[in-house]
Specification:
Helix content is 30%, strand content 22%. With 281 residues, the protein is of the alpha/beta class.
Length: 281
C-alpha cells in the first residue's frame, strides 16, 4: 500500500481494485486514509471468489464474489493489485487484456509474484505448489504485457514468500521505463536454469539421506507445520512415514488427518512436544 502511494496520487473518488483480496487486509490500509474533502472517499473494490473467506469490509469497499473480469468494473481503476495470484491465472493473456480495459490512462497495476531468480539461486523449488505452477521470468512477462499494450516500467525484489518480484505496470509509453527492468532481465539471463533440476535432485537426496540416518539411529523426526509448500518438498524428496513420524500443526481442523500425498499424521503441537523429537523439519 505504501509503495503504491509513491506512484499514484490518491484523490477523492480514486478507484482501487485488489484481485484475490482474501480477507481485505490490503484494502483496509487504504480505508484508513483521511482525504481532505469531507464526504468523499476512495472507492475500493475487492475480487474474492472464495466463499469460505470473510472479507472485512469498511463502508467504502465493494466485494465482488467472483473471479476478475473487466465487465465487473464500471469505471477505470487508478490502482490495481494482484498479489500472489497472477501465477494461478488459467488464461494469462485474457487476464492481462481485462487489466488493460479497466486500467485508467494514468493508472498503475502492481503485480507481486514469485521471483525466478530467488527460486533458482536458493534451489527454492517449493515455490511450485498446488495451483501455483507458473514462475514468470520478467522477459516472458514483458512479452505478454506488450501484446495487450501494457508495459512494465519498474521492478523491485522483495523478501515476501522467500523472494518475490513487485512489478509496476502501466499503459505503454505512459511512464519512463526505469533501469531496474533491464537489470533484472540481465540477471535472469545469467541464471543457471539448466542446472536447476540437478540442484533439486541433489538437495532432495541429501535431505532424504539425513532423515534415513536419523531413522537408523532411532532418532525421531517431526515436521513443524503441515504447510502447503512443505508438501512440495516431501513429495519431491519421497519423504514419508516412518522417516517422519508426524506433523505438528496449530490449526486444529487439520488434526487427525494426513499430510497430502503421504501417510504422515497431523498432530497438535502439544502431542509433538510430548513425543520429544530429536529433529523438527
Amino acid at each position: 500500500a505504501k509503495a503504491a502511494q509513491t506512484v499514484v496520487t490518491l484523490k477523492p473518488d480514486t478507484i482501487i481494485v485488489d484481485i484475490g483480496a482474501n480477507d481485505g487486509t490490503l484494502l483496509r490500509e487504504f480505508s484508513y486514509l483521511k482525504l481532505p474533502i469531507v464526504g468523499r472517499e476512495l472507492h475500493l473494490i475487492a475480487f474474492e471468489p472464495a466463499l469460505n473467506i470473510s472479507v472485512d469490509a469498511p463502508n467504502c469497499l465493494i466485494i465482488i464474489r467472483d473471479y476478475f473480469k473487466a465487465y465487473s468494473v464500471t469505471d477505470r481503476a487508478h490502482l490495481i493489485f494482484s498479489a500472489a495470484m497472477f501465477y494461478s491465472v488459467a488464461n494469462p493473456q485474457e487476464f492481462v487484456q481485462d487489466i488493460k480495459t479497466v486500467l485508467h490512462p494514468e493508472g498503475v497495476w502492481l503485480i507481486e509474484m514469485g521471483d525466478l531468480q530467488a527460486m533458482v539461486e536458493n534451489t527454492a523449488f517449493d515455490f511450485i505448489g498446488h495451483e501455483h505452477v507458473a514462475i514468470w521470468s520478467l522477459a516472458a512477462l514483458t512479452s505478454l504485457l506488450a501484446r495487450s499494450g501494457l508495459e512494465a516500467w519498474r521492478i523491485e525484489r522483495v523478501p515476501t514468500n522467500g523472494g518475490s518480484l513487485r512489478v509496476y505496470v502501466s499503459h505503454q509509453g505512459s511512464r519512463p521505463v526505469e533501469p531496474s527492468i533491464a537489470e533484472q532481465v540481465a540477471r535472469e539471463v545469467a541464471l543457471a536454469v539448466d542446472q536447476f533440476s540437478r540442484q533439486v535432485e541433489d538437495l532432495c537426496e541429501a535431505l532424504r539421506l539425513t532423515l534415513t540416518h536419523a531413522r537408523r539411529d532411532h532418532q525421531k523426526v517431526y515436521l513443524y507445520a503441515a504447510s502447503t509448500r512443505g508438501c512440495t518438498l516431501l513429495q519431491t524428496a519421497k519423504i514419508d512415514y516412518p522417516l517422519v513420524l508426524g506433523a505438528a500443526e496449530r490449526d486444529e481442523r487439520k488434526w487427525g488427518k494426513l499430510v497430502p500425498g503421504t501417510s504422515i499424521p497431523i498432530v497438535s503441537e502439544a502431542e509433538m512436544r510430548e513425543a520429544k523429537p530429536d529433529y523438527l523439519l
